[in-house]
Amino acid sequence: MSGHRLTVVLSQAQGKHPAKRALEEALAAALILESGLDVSVVPYLYDLDKEHTGRLFLESVSGDMVILGWMYPRAAFWVLDRDGIKGHFGESQLKPQNLDDADEEETEQESQPSKGIGSLDVPDRHIYCLDLRDFSSHEPYLQEIRRIAEECRQRRETKLQEHQKANPALVQLGTNLANTSSESPSHADPFAPEQLLKPPDRRWYPVIDYSRCTNCMECIDFCLFGVYGVDDHARILVDNQDNCKKGCPACSRVCPEQAIMFPDYKTPAIAGAPVGAVGGLKIDLTRLFGGDTKNALSQAVLERDRELVNDGRDAVGATVGMPKRQAGKEETPKDELDSLMDALDAMEL
Length: 349
Hints:
The chain contains 13 helices and 9 strands. With about 350 residues, the protein is an alpha/beta fold.
C-alpha cells in the first residue's frame, strides 16, 4: 500500500437485500476506477471476529481510511477502535437527505470537544465512516471520497513540509521524504477476495464511545453477565463481548453519558446516532429510549431480569447495580439530567 493512496473499505450489509447489494456494487465499480485509492470489500463490520480475514486486513491498514457501512458513523468508528483499529475521527461533509434542523444541531453539538476519557495509543491517521443508509445513489459517496482523498493529500503535504523544515539535513543528503511512510507494505496479496468475504456469524455486543465515556463504571455494576471488565489502566472495556444477551440493550439505557451503543438496535441513539450535550439536554430523550423517558430505567431493569430468567437465574429487579450518577464525582450544581436521574432513583420499581 502506497503512502499516497487512501484505503477505502466497503463493509457489506447483512443478508442479501437487493437494493443494498445494488448500491454496494455500483460503489465498488465506481471506486476501482478512481486513481489513488486502494479499494476492498469486507463483510458487515460489527460481525467480524478477531480471526476473520476481513478483520486481519483492517488491522493491516495503517494509513488514512474510509469505511462505507450500514451503520451510524459513530458506531462504526468505535467498533473499529474496540477491535484495535484506531485513528482520529475523520469529519465527513455528507449530510443525510432527511436531516432536519434539530438533527443538524445535534450533529454539530456532537462534533464539539467532549469530556470523555478518550481512546489510548491513537496513531497519526484519520478514519472516516460513511453511512450507506443516507443515500440511495453511489454518487454522493463518490464525491465525498474524492474530497476526503484531497484532504488527506493536503494533510500529508503539510506534514512533509513541517518535517523538511525540522530536518533540513535530510533534504540536503537527498533523502526521498516523499516516500517516507510508517505504513505497511502492500496488503493486496495476503488478502484474497474470497478470504475477505467469508460470511461471519452474526454477533451482538455493546460498543463504548470513549469520547463520551467518563469511566464511571455504572455499566459494569448493572450488567450481571460478565460482559464488562477493566484494562491495565483501570479503564472500562467490553471484556467478554459474546457473553452479551442478543437483543438486550439494557446497559445503554443506564449509561449517564449515552456512551454505550448497540449498532444493530432499532432505536437510533442506542444504535449510534449523533446525540447532543448531556448536561444541556440537547437531545430528545424520548427519541433516545424509544418510549416514555420516565420508564427508561425500569425498561432496563425488565430487560436485564428477562435475560437472567432465560439463563435460569433469579430476577433481581432494582436491587442490584442501579445507577448512582458517579457517586465519587466532585459535587457540582445539579443539571436537568441529574434531577431526572434523582427522580428515577426515588421511584419504586
